[in-house]
Write a structure and sequence with these properties.
Methylamine Dehydrogenase, Chain H; eight-stranded mixed beta sheet; four-stranded antiparallel beta sheet; 20 strands; disordered N terminus
Length: 263
């Protein structure tokens, strides 16, 4: 009887060891696997205020919500997608440079660049409800319905409690090397989509591991603008209709796009 028990324990231990080895091998394989490559297809084009220095973009309740930057020009906006008309506008005090925004539980959460300060507004009223602080620069912000995810210009993504605004954890974003200058963020179907500052590409990031699982080559989109626009910056997602919108700083258009995998 004792021998049978020992044999059973041995089998269990071997099974556990095999599972652990399999998990390590799977993790290593996922880390080493190359990121998938995508291009894009334009589905629709909408007008956009070409004076808007876009820093953050969200689609919520049928509208685009936009944060614009620059000292003395930073704003929070509600924008009609089809016409580009700004139907609600709040100007930030001149000492703040507006950055990323996200909308969670009927609250707009807006970052500022170098002031270590964020603002919380009512999504319908634009009334200032709360201010909060963080120790880093403020770049992009999004959420997964549970916690906030924030970039600061480095390869680090900070995960933040949306009530206390205390940091919960962080992940380092990497492909073959650390991926820095993560700018505007959007959470789309379990992944974080991130503009990379001054790059015509979007990183698709696994929020659990920080691994860049895909790259979207956005080359050529900027050339469709009639003027001399700034860099690509601004990703919004309509979860109800499964639509992705992108724009850039001082672009005259917002583009609805579809991702196209490359062979």
């Amino acid at each position: 009887m004792r021998k049978q028990s020992l044999f059973l324990v041995a089998l269990i231990m071997v099974g556990l060891l095999s599972s652990a080895v399999a998990l390590v091998l799977l993790s290593n394989w996922q880390a080493a696997s190359p990121a998938r490559q995508y291009t894009y297809r334009i589905i629709n084009v909408y007008p956009h205020d070409e004076d808007a220095f876009t820093q953050g973009l969200v689609f919520e309740n049928g509208f685009l919500y936009e944060s614009t930057g620059l000292y003395g020009e930073s704003t929070l906006r509600r924008v009609e997608l089809e016409t580009g008309k700004v139907i609600e506008l709040l100007s930030l005090p001149d000492q703040y440079f507006g950055e990323g925004i996200t909308v969670l539980n009927d609250r707009i959460i807006q970052l500022t660049w170098l002031s270590n300060k964020g603002f919380v507004y009512g999504v319908h009223s634009f009334e200032l409800m709360q201010e909060f602080n963080y120790p880093t620069q403020g770049w992009g912000i999004t959420h997964d319905g549970i916690q906030l995810m924030m970039s600061d210009g480095t390869a680090i993504l900070h995960f933040i409690d949306p009530i206390t605004f205390e940091k919960v954890t962080e992940v380092n974003v990497y492909d073959k090397a650390p991926v820095t200058e993560l700018n505007e963020l959007e959470y789309i179907q379990g992944k974080i989509y991130a503009n990379v500052w001054k790059e015509e590409k979007i990183a698709i990031i696994n929020p659990q591991t920080g691994k860049v699982e895909g790259w979207v080559d956005m080359s050529g989109l900027r050339n469709l603008e009639n003027q001399n626009p700034g860099v690509l910056n601004g990703i919004a997602y309509d979860s109800k209709e499964d639509r992705i919108f992108v724009t850039g700083k001082r672009w005259a258009q917002v583009f609805e796009i579809e991702l196209v995998p490359l062979a």
